[in-house]
Description:
By secondary structure, the chain is an all-alpha fold. The protein has helices at residues 2-10, 12-29, 37-43, 53-88, 100-117, 124-147, 155-179, 182-192, 201-220, 222-229, 232-237, 242-264, 270-282, 286-310, 319-344, and strands at 148-149, 152-153.
Amino acid sequence: MQASFRSSQSHVFPALIIALVVVGITSIAVGQWQLGWLTSLQSLTPWHDNVEPHVLAIVQQVRLPRTLLCIFIGALLAVCGTLMQGLFRNPLADPGIIGVSGGASLGGALGLLLLSWGSIEASFVFSVPAFAFIGALLATLFVYRIGTTSMGSSVTIMLLAGIAISALSGAALGLINYVADNQTLRDIALWSMGSLTGATWGQIVLTGIAACLLTVFAYQRARHLNALLLGENEAAYLGIDVHHLKRLLIVVTAAGMGIAVSAAGLIGFVGLVIPHIGRLIAGPDHRTLVPLSAILGALLLTLADIVARVIVAPAELPVGIITALMGAPFFLWLLIQQRKAVVHE
């Protein structure tokens, strides 16, 4: 039976990669103008002489960048969620639920406001991620300090800390919206709902590098994360510098969330749902869970973006609304399962 399980696992990654390629091409083909698979594929090759110029522009300048950004942001959010659940040793730990996304969004909105005022001279690609990173880092540190003890993490305190951060971030965002001009206000509003429109190659390069580095980092520390699941004392007995590992996880997760939020705004529940799906497929071993979460996150967010573009065509919904509609029921189901577990204990 174990051999059969391993055999089935060996087919998971190739199947998911093929699915991601298929969904990615579909993302390029569908939208306000239906292009078709063959036309989309031809537009991505050097042999696109027969493709009309406006179709070529749509594929290469609009849909391809957007699809790549979907893939990288999805992988970033999923791996951040996996690391955060490993850090807190709690399946309910999610950057959106515990307020980390709120802190990142506040920092990013502040960066947008300062850019509109001309108070900072750096380009959008580098300034907003820096502010979002600082916001995510402060929120993560606060939640970790409040919600974690030597006995583990308290779900109740962690969620309450997340509510407090979200409320504070919401109030500060309201103040920023009040003093912002019309264009900045519109940018912040769309960005806060999670939007992948207007993807730039600068954002793609930044998120692509971040997604690859974060996935490699998490995979290299998979054994440490596995040991941390046993408890901090047990991990220390195995020779792991737990305090250094926790500090590293906090900074790296905050950096990943800051980059993701700065590029696409608030996209919730990806970091909560994907690690659970990964565990159902391959178990809790982070050596498998980390790369699996990255692929699943990219796949889920690309699918959500396709739905966001076609469900109210020719208009489109913010992708954050779609992920919330999918993730909120899943979160409620997790809470019910946690309640049942407490009752049975």
